[in-house]
Amino acid sequence: MTSAAVSAGVSSSPSLAVAPRCVLLAGGGSGGHISPGLAIAERMKAIDPGCRPVFACSQRPIDAQMLTEAGAEHVAIPAEPMSLRPRKLLRCMRAFVRGRAEVLRMIDRLQPSWVVSLGGFVTAPVVHAARARGVPVLLVNLDATPGRANRWVARRAREVVSAIPTPTIPGFARETIGMPLRRLALAPAEQASCREQLGLLPGVRTLLVTGASQGANSLNDFMLLQAQRDPKAFKDWQVLHLCGPSVSGGAARFESGYRAAGVHAVVMPFLHRMGLAWGAADLALSRAGANSVGEAAANHVPTIFVPYPYHADLHQMHNAMPLVDEGAAVLAKDAIEPEANLRALGEPMLKLMHDDASRRAMRARLEARTEPDAAERIARFLLGAGSFG
């Protein structure tokens, strides 16, 4: 067992001996890859308490933080994102070789019946090792535009399913099954109760601002400037702002900024129990990662989705388009600079904050949707109690 594995919270004791119905889930680097895997593992344990889901994750802190909080067995694999820059490419290849060797040892020890690829750069060495040992691979694609890693895995997987349609690559997956969502991502109580548990005022409309697990600097800076420039716009509203764990100045900078503007706000770097946040919200401003889109839809929260602006093709946009086309969400373009975002993001946000009828109509459309329990379906397949296609 490497030092990375030990630091990730996995013991090298004999408890890691072969267990029946072991499944290795590979993914990481962001909460969007970890959360669906946790949802699948959660349902597996509910169906068969004796099964053993084990995560092969990246060495990024967010992975260990989320998996440790969930009590999930995990090993951090040395892996690096692919790059065409010579030094980074060399580092990627070296990490691939080390990661593959470590996964081969894991597979020999754990004897998993399946490897589940959840996307991200950590999946390549895991899938390569699984193929070498003859372990079947299930790819669960989580984005409307499959990335390079998922396209590579798809050619090597026994089964390919997708959480959402893939309009840019028709026929990519055997079936579109919905987003696997953790139970912690679903509102656990009535709106007032969710607000109280988060330190919010129970009877005040709430705007949720989230850049997902890593936060979003452009959304953070925009919100602070919007509150300072037009605090009266937040009359009868409060803000729940998830700013990200590594933001400059930390949550305190935004807390003091809201306070100085006279806007009631609760600011947190990160929230594991995202169901509380969605349950508290009347409106959300959110990145458009597929997991965030799935959570907003499942919790019936009208949302302004803001795709990650540094992808040339703005491919996160495709994750949100089914809801936008149904009139259940709004799409806005991140102009990056705070001043420019006062118009690009501020105008649609303030319009919906002060248009109760539009928000009610959006929520009604979301409530009319049917959201399958994709995590349970995948879990049943992995445990031999279901199929796809």
Helices and strands in order, then pairings?
Blueprint: H1 3-7, E1 22-26, H2 31-47, E2 52-57, H3 61-69, E3 74-76, H4 86-110, E4 114-117, H5 123-133, E5 137-141, H6 148-154, E6 159-162, E7 175-176, H7 191-197, E8 205-210, H8 217-229, E9 237-242, H9 250-261, E10 265-268, H10 274-280, E11 283-287, H11 290-298, E12 303-306, H12 316-325, E13 329-331, H13 338-344, H14 346-353, H15 356-368, H16 374-382
Parallel strand pairs: 1-2, 1-4, 2-3, 4-5, 5-6, 6-7, 8-9, 8-11, 9-10, 11-12, 12-13
Helix pairs in contact: 2-3, 2-16, 4-5, 7-10, 8-9, 8-13
Q: Please, could you describe this protein's structure?
A:
- The protein is of the alpha/beta class and 389 residues long.
- The chain has two domains: 3-178 and 372-382, Glycogen Phosphorylase B (Rossmann fold), CATH 3.40.50; 185-368, Rossmann fold (3-Layer(aba) Sandwich), CATH 3.40.50.2000.
- The protein has helices at residues 3-7, 31-47, 61-69, 86-110, 123-133, 148-154, 191-197, 217-229, 250-261, 274-280, 290-298, 316-325, 338-344, 346-353, 356-368, 374-382, and strands at residues 22-26, 52-57, 74-76, 114-117, 137-141, 159-162, 175-176, 205-210, 237-242, 265-268, 283-287, 303-306, 329-331.
- The strands form two sheets. A seven-stranded parallel sheet has the order 3-2-1-4-5-6-7, with helices on both faces. The chain has a six-stranded parallel sheet with strand order 10-9-8-11-12-13, sandwiched between helices.
- Strand 1 (22-26), helix 2 (31-47) and strand 2 (52-57) form a beta-alpha-beta unit.
- Helix 2 (31-47) runs parallel beside helix 3 (61-69) and helix 8 (217-229) crosses helix 13 (338-344).
- The chain is globular, with a radius of gyration of 21 Å.
- The chain starts with a helix and ends in a 7-residue tail after the last helix.
